[in-house]
DNA sequence: ATGTTAATTAACACAAGCGTTAATTACAAA
DNA sequence: TTTGTAATTAACGCTTGTGTTAATTAACAT
């Protein structure tokens, strides 16, 4: 089975909290690898690899400027995730899961008082 | 870093095309493991494990009935993905990526004729 | 030239993911 | 009770992911 399709790469890239944190930071504006690495309790090479994963998934871009690599967010894969998720909107709007039925029941009880 | 948070589990579960296919099939209605496994060129135990991954991520539920396990979609994690993605809507609505700038340029050229 | 800074690559260790076949559990039906 | 069906677990192998430290590349600055 093909596990190298773009959507799989995107979901896979987003499956690590450090990479989502990097993305969140970049949403506020592009910056360099060292700045991105600073808040993490992790070595620089580790962060560098996370960035590479994001780049290979097309979620970010790196442009060289002297010895710096400025990273910026690339929106397309996020849109793909959004549209994939939209496909399930009918389900999450109509169908209540177990927890929700439980919350509904609790709310009803509160209303009864 | 905590890699067992719910969102990571969800993205991780969605990162495999077989699991997304299983989810798509279940969106049409709950069914059993064997039925889910049928379209795949993969052994039953393999599919069983994919189902377990989806279940541990909270994306599906299994209810036992005799020797059958009926699987159904659970919407909550999908909503979480949607709302995580929404956070980046401003970016993907305003920011054009490289490919898009390229398409824009092409369109402009066409208009010029 | 030499040293400093930014970032990556190399080499390694260890855990997790994904697939297989064979064995096992749980239930139904004859 | 035996047989068949649904599904999981066991045991294994292989690949990928994630982190480390040490070494290396690339560019700037003195």
TrEMBL record, chains A, B:
Entries under InterPro entries matching the protein: ArsR-like_HTH (IPR011991), HTH_ArsR_DNA-bd_dom (IPR001845), WH-like_DNA-bd_sf (IPR036388), WH_DNA-bd_sf (IPR036390)
Top-level taxon: Bacteria
Domain HTH arsR-type: 1-93
PANTHER family: SLL0088 PROTEIN, TRANSCRIPTIONAL REGULATORY PROTEIN
Name recorded for this polypeptide: Transcriptional regulator
Species per Swiss-Prot/TrEMBL record: Algimonas ampicilliniresistens
Lineage summary: Bacteria, Pseudomonadati, Pseudomonadota, Alphaproteobacteria, Maricaulales
């Amino acid at each position: 089975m093909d596990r190298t399709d773009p959507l799989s790469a995107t979901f896979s890239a987003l499956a690590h909290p450090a990479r989502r944190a990097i993305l969140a930071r970049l949403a506020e504006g592009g910056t360099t690898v060292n700045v991105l690495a600073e808040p993490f309790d992790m070595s620089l090479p580790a962060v560098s690899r996370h960035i590479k994963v994001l780049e290979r998934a097309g979620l970010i871009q790196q442009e060289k400027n002297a010895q710096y690599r400025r990273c910026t967010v690339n929106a397309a894969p996020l849109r793909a995730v959004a549209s994939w998720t939209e496909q399930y909107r009918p389900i999450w709007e109509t169908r209540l899961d177990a927890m929700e039925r439980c919350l509904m029941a609790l709310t009803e009880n509160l209303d009864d008082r």
